[in-house]
């Protein structure tokens, strides 16, 4: 099953909920914990590209790392099943 590529127009909340492994990527780039509190509220409406701009992050680099994290996770899941 192919995973949807994370893109800049996706909501941060949706990305974190669908792919919890991406939380560490956001954190590594200096984003606050968007899983609870006031940041969770903004994550529901904030697109990934907006979060990158707000936190002065190169959006292409962020998207690349997010997608790599998802790919690694999917690969690990596949390898554990086999």
Q: Structural class from helices and strands?
A: mainly alpha
Written as H for each helix and E for each strand, in order along the chain, the element string is HHHHH
Q: List the uncertain runs.
A: none
* Average predicted confidence as pLDDT: 92
The share of residues in helices is 55-70%
Q: Span from first to last CA?
A: 15 Å
Give the biggest beta sheet: none
Strand content: under 5%
Q: Please give the number of β-strands.
A: 0
How many structural domains? 1
Task: Give your account of this protein's structure.
This protein has one domain (12-81). It has helices at residues 12-18, 23-28, 37-45, 48-54, 59-81. By secondary structure, it is mostly helical. The protein has five helices and no strands. The longest helix has 23 residues, at 59-81. The protein starts with 11 loop residues before the first helix and ends with a helix.
Quick take:
The protein has 82 residues and is mostly helical. The chain has helices spanning 12-18, 23-28, 37-45, 48-54, 59-81.
Key traits:
mainly alpha, single chain, 82 residues
Summarize the topology.
Blueprint: H1 12-18, H2 23-28, H3 37-45, H4 48-54, H5 59-81
